[in-house]
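Curious: explain these tokens?
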Amino acid sequence: MKKILLTQKQIKDKNGATCDCLEKNYIDYFGDHRFIPVPMPNNPMAFKEMIKDKSLVVFTGGSDPFKDCMRSLTENVLLGAAIKLGIPVLGICRGLQFINHYYGGCLAKTPETHKKLHRIVINSDTLPFEGNVNSFHDFCVKPQTVAVDLSVFAKSDDDVVEGLYWSENKVIAVQWHPERGGMDEWINDNILNVLKEWMK
């Protein structure tokens, strides 16, 4: 089983202390797909040790982009290191937004329709095909705000970018939450198959 590194959001406990936090859904989802998930502390100095022997780096969802300063610093360092070392990267929800911004893209406010199950169109090498995904986000990427180096592989009916990739750097990102279920699972299976190919 391959070890993978997952970023974490930051929350305040009842005493006001800042805590790193990772939803159990991530552990269950990746564990069910025969990965060993390892949470990444929000400490940019820890990346060298934490990234050792990892086959994938997952930039998770949770909180609006750039709300948590230490998380943003950590993810900036971590993404740069993963790309330099040739380690595949998966962005989920906020992770897609972060990756787009890292490469020079911008964000927009999300339409109200993106707080529920909705349809997306996925572009393939032959014909587009459709599927249903979940969404829980307040910000999004529009086609006109995508970073130059990234390519769009999925969009919603109201023109919100749902999937980005850069094969050369082994980066793929989705706006939905595969770990929360309640959607067409074959879409997530295809994403994981791409990542597993990159891990070889």
